[in-house]
Amino acid sequence: MAAGVLATVAGLAGVQVPATAEAAPRDGVRITRFLGEQRLPHKMDFEGTVVGGLSGIDRDPRTGTWYFISDDRHRYNPARFYTGRLDINRVTGAFTGARVTGHTTFLRPDGSPYPGYGLPESADPETIRFDRRTRRLLWGHEGDRPSASQPGIPVSGLFVRWTDGAGRYGGDLPLPANLRMTDTEQGPRRNFGFEGLAVGPRSIAAIVEGPRYEDGTPPTVQHGAPARLTVWDRDGEVEGQYAYPIDPLPAAPIPADGATDSGVSELLAIDDHRYLALERSWIQGVDYVVKLYEIDLRGATDVLRRDALASGAPYRAVTKRLVYDFGRSHRPVQNLESLAWGPRLLSGECTLVVGSDDNFDTREVTQFLAFATRGPGAC
User: Fold this and answer.
1) Each residue of 55-88: pLDDT tens digit?
2) Which domains does the chain have, with CATH numbers?
3) Are 161 and 185 in contact, with CB atoms under 8 Å apart?
């Protein structure tokens, strides 16, 4: 089925989304070869911190420095990011090493570290980007709120925040009103805040992991769900918001009433209207299923001023094309949450690095997978 053909997805009221396609168009991103895998030791000690939970990565192309953000919510150490090196041979493409070289604690506007889990103003860092223009870092906090299982958790609004290399606060991007956390069944759900962040030539984009209460229920095997992708200009003004159509669950949990968690775990800019998106599902009794999609905002409806996507007027979601299914060649699939451009190879190929968050769990690993790509890329 051609990428532009429209299909209606059950459970997304009034939305039209493109059917996914295997074949990449000539101007689309396509993976040409696998370059290798590297891992970091489980709960590795580095400068008195526990390395793990790496949920976002990015690279400074001028220095070759890599940035890794940890989603440790002060279980081991305060909210932080690491610097490091990923060794990719620009001639052969061989991926031969991964190491950590430094760590930095994020600081609040008052200069203090973020408090621990369950306390007011705690942080859940999930995504990080290096801005080539300003040479600053931009990172996303997923936010938190009370739930049936955690009624004592205070409301903590999600944010996208600037910082410098020393972790010092540098300002926030303004948040659309429809992404404000509440303690009622309005706004983003718990664990469905900002997970993906992208910096383009003239814009910044961030995507929440899953649907707000007003936008529908989380994905099941019967239906998908919309996640809101917000775009700012480089002056920090909100330009628009678009619906990303999350797939239905690829399999039912075992047992049938088992737990599931499915949504967008990272976003990476190709240009100012095209992005790569990691779509990740965890299904009890099945494990992780992760796919890489290329999406395009052109032609999609701006839903910034639509409070509810589960009802009301029809809208058009972003177009979406399957680039890679990690289950085909990388079993068992890990909890893939990171996505970044690496160096350009002498062959002209861009390198793409995908990383996993081990959840500080011995059953999972901190893994980096490197691929060569053709087509548009920001490497």
Assistant:
1) 999 999 999 999 999 999 889 999 999 999 999 9
2) 6-374 (2.115.10)
3) no
